[in-house]
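Researcher: Last one for today. Full complex below.
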Amino acid sequence: MISVKLKLKGMQQFMRGTVDFKEGIVGINGDQITVDKLPFDIPLSGTVYGTILNYKGAYETLKTSMHKEPYKEPPKAPILYIKPANTLISSDAVIPLPEDISELEMGAALGVVIGTQATKIAEDEAFDYVFGYTVVNDVSIPHESVYRPAVKEKARDGFCPAGPWIIEREAVKNPDELNIYVYINGQLKQENNTSNLIRPIGKLLADVTAFMTLYEGDTLLVGIPENAPLASVNDHVQIEIEGVGKLQNTIKSEKNLLGGL
Amino acid sequence: MKHARVVYNGSIHHAIEKKGNMQLNDGQIVKENEVIWLPPVGPRTVFTLGLNYVDHAKELDFNVPKEPLVFLKGPNTFTGHLSKTYRPSDVSFMHYECELAVVIGDTARNVRKEEAYDYVAGYTVANDYVMRDYLENYYRPNLRAKNRDACTPLGPWLVDAQDISDPMNLTLRTYVNGAVTQEGTTADMILGVPELIEYLTSFMTLSAGDIILTGTPKGSVDTKVGDEVVTEIEGIGRLVNTIIGEDTLTKTK
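Model: Here's the assembly. Have a good evening.
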């Protein structure tokens, strides 16, 4: 039995459920409901932190520049950023495309949801602090330089779809070996695997909590694979992480957004 | 009016300043040294400006950036008045940054600078410590240098916006062990409070309780274990913090 924590629209509290991936059915309080009938809300409650340059391929892309200006040397510690509260939306919600922008990067990320306040934790105990996993789309306005924090590119309203649920830790046998697929309008545009992480999840949690506390409910995105696919207005985007879930959203022009909801 | 969030007798209270003492929300009058001070606003989304004073940018050998240098901070980094902040033992340069903190009062999107003050609830003082040894040139200033636990004291008071006639003309001072080490004025900000609100709301929504730390002027000096660091802004408050050694925080199994 695969156990999930989820939030449904119109209800303040979180729900517990079970998922049958093969049949596409969620069980909640004895009811069996098909996934596409459930009005999912954002399943996350804490701060969402992202990690850059943690996929080998993403690191390789920048590697030749790392000894040049402005970077000067390769990164030592994990490089993080924050997806603030205004960016969070649920699965099935609309990603707003800013008026002066034509394409957005779809950053397919495994989100590790923290279960117990974690400070200076050891790598071999890291999973004791994990509640579960979710699927996150770290949406960005395309930008090449990672020298300065990308708040304008990454922190826009609706730029962090997450969900549809949090799957419990025990249900994912090896989070360091999960296939990730990104489909745009039904076409497979990207495929990667968390086995390509430079810092696997335990090591990443240890290295991050060496300098900052992660609280219960916080989510750490383990990285964005290289060559993040681009999507544009009216595109339907689905990110699937094997054994974790499928997150789907549609992009609409920011200008028409409220009318289009 | 000046507001604080404090712990007294095991409960969290909203308090207001009352003739040098404080009045808790249940009416009790207590002394300022009888409470534990929390940040006056529970941090939600917090922005910080880098290089927003010309003299500080020059001090660090940076040109004034074309695009405002904005970064975000997590809730782990905030602590209150009279708190202690630890200095890692391998750090050679840890400096304070005295900053005017602007607390947003209402949902704000596409706000013009002429109307920006309508969206300000009030002001407080921030001390935005940085461990310069940990700076790396990726999303600089990176979180390891700027978002450490209890590394951003905030407070003591949230001062209502209407009580500050001109937030763009306030003296900032930092004292280390009583000696002035940093002095500047908010008049020297490159982007002032209205421009920052206009800039941020031009691409995202700000909500009540969001905070903008507006950057620091020149005068960054290394601080050592045992130093008392006071960041003070005219009319807003005097925020006291003490540096402690990392050995006091070692975890044992």
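The first helix of chain A runs from residue 56 to 63. The radius of gyration of chain A is 18 Å.
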